[in-house]
Write a structure and sequence with these properties.
Distance between the termini: 42 Å
Order of helices and strands: HEEEHEEHHHHEEEEHHHHHEEHHEHEE
Structural class: alpha+beta
Largest sheet: 5 strands, antiparallel
CATH class of the largest domain: Alpha Beta
Number of domains: 3
Radius of gyration: 25 Å
CATH superfamily of the largest domain: Aminoglycoside phosphotransferase (APH), C-terminal lobe
Oligomer: single chain
């Protein structure tokens, strides 16, 4: 729940306490978001971020964009520390929702929306970019050779290493140097959004609003448009990308004179840089932080990488050799239309699992139960092993805790089945994710699969054990 500062900001703004608070799911940052509802149904978003310098950049950039006629959520109030603020609630729909629903085949309306977004991007980069206070940028004010090297290293250390893909460090660094030299003379005088992708484009009545630009800095034009058009799950065809890039060029040329041939070349190179950076992010968020959405996005980013390398934009022999060795696992096709209950055991030390499907679900804390992990004879065992099970039954109230958990979740399962929902997540956490949470998750999954006509996916995250309980054929 949000702390007293957010309650005070809401009270000062609306003259009353909020009636409802809905924590929003984590994304890739440390910011915490809450949707607060007033008595008349008005909603706002509350944000808590301890990085005051990042918030200062966000608040300043927001004002600049607003002054330039760019649609961004309005900042309603903030506290003196700049660690808490309230912003306009634009809703829940994003461009990403429409793009993924199109599955690589955007219709004329979606192309029209993309064109509007790209026209806005040109204004953000050029018109607003001329008025941004770059002294507030987080870290470096420029996307320079050092920043590019960081992106490339992100791919090397967070994707290749975490995916256990062998490579020759010196040969890869030689390819990295080729990439950096190819864009060494790029004009970096524009505002670079840094993460200009469809998840950061909200839609209100199909009008785009832009979020998550606090990491912006001086940079090249091509990086942001490449971020959007080469977003992994968008699955846009080269024909569609070229069509949209031409529309972007039209918007740019209305604002400045530009060498379009050079910009087209830079577009492909920065698409490659961005794809490598994205794979690094997916490797870190997916393989290391165990966030399923990022793991599922890796095959799409790998497809982009292989396609870009096939264009032979630059001589990158070792990167091509690495890409050739990587087999892309096709996402499994799922024809099941009923309710799937995903049950997860986890360690609080490694964070609560993120529900990327629905943004909700249940989390039960098992740490109130006596911990077998304190005793040497159980340290190498799990909550699935009989000695641990016997210990828990004899020395804790874990079966009562489990029964109460089932009672709490059961009405939601029944309502989800009735309403035709397809996803629900239930998590059990303890200190190490090995004993108490594993026992609860295992027995909860088995009980639910017998009690309801649902599919149950059991994930023991820290134990790296998965199990599927399929519903009986009716």
């Amino acid at each position: 729940m949000p702390d007293n500062t957010i309650e005070r900001l809401f009270q000062e703004r609306f003259g009353e306490p909020y009636k409802k608070c809905e924590p929003l799911p984590h994304s890739g940052s440390n910011r915490r978001y809450y949707r607060l509802t007033a008595s008349d149904g008005t909603t706002v978003l509350a944000v808590h971020n301890d990085d005051a310098s990042e918030n200062k950049a966000y608040l300043s950039f927001t004002q600049t964009f607003t002054d330039c006629g760019i649609n961004v959520p309005k900042v309603l109030s903030h506290d003196d520390t700049l660690c808490y603020y309230l912003v306009e609630d634009i809703g829940r729909e994003t461009l990403y929702d429409l793009v993924t629903a199109a599955d690589g085949n955007p219709d004329s309306e979606l192309i029209k929306l993309f064109s509007k977004v790209l026209d806005d991007l040109a204004k953000i980069q050029i018109s607003a970019g001329q008025k941004i206070d770059y002294s507030l940028c987080i870290g470096s004010q420029n996307f320079d050779q050092t920043a590019i090297q960081w992106d490339l290293n992100y791919f090397k250390y967070c994707y290749l290493k975490n995916a256990h893909i062998n490579f020759d460090e010196q040969k890869l660094e030689t390819d990295f140097e080729t990439i950096k030299q190819a864009v060494a003379g790029t004009d970096n005088q524009y505002f670079m959004f840094r993460d200009f992708q469809s998840r950061n484009i909200m839609l209100k009545n199909r009008i785009p609003y832009y979020i998550d630009f606090q990491g912006g800095k001086h940079g090249p034009l091509a990086y942001d448009v490449a971020s959007l058009l080469y977003q992994a799950k968008a699955k846009l065809s080269e024909e569609t990308r070229n069509l949209l890039f031409d529309k972007y060029l039209d918007s740019i040329q209305k604002l400045i004179d530009i060498d379009t041939t050079q910009l087209k070349r830079e577009f492909k190179i920065f698409a490659l840089i961005r794809t490598l950076q994205v794979l690094g992010a997916y490797g870190y968020r997916g393989y290391y932080e165990k966030k399923q959405h990022f793991i599922e996005s890796i095959p799409f980013a790998l497809t982009n990488l292989k396609n870009l390398l096939a264009l032979n934009i630059l001589p990158l022999p070792h990167l091509c050799e690495i890409a050739d060795k990587i087999e892309i696992e096709e996402p499994e096709k799922d024809d099941y239309n009923g309710l799937t209950v995903t049950v997860v055991s986890f360690s609080y030390k490694k964070g609560i699992p993120t529900d990327t499907e629905t943004g909700g679900g249940f989390v039960f804390d098992c740490r109130g139960q006596h911990n077998p992990g304190r005793y040497d004879e159980y340290k190498m065992l799990t909550g699935r092993d009989k000695p641990v099970i016997d210990f828990l039954k004899a020395n804790s109230t874990i079966d009562q805790f489990l029964a109460q958990s089932i009672d709490i979740v059961t009405p939601t399962i029944e309502k989800y089945i009735e309403r035709g929902f397809t996803k629900l997540m239930v998590c059990f956490g303890c200190t190490g994710g090995q004993h108490r949470s594993a026992y609860c998750a295992q027995n909860f999954a088995e009980a639910i699969s017998k009690k309801h006509n649902v599919r149950v996916k059991l994930i023991h995250r820290e134990l790296k054990i998965n199990q599927l309980f399929t519903p009986p054929i009716s």
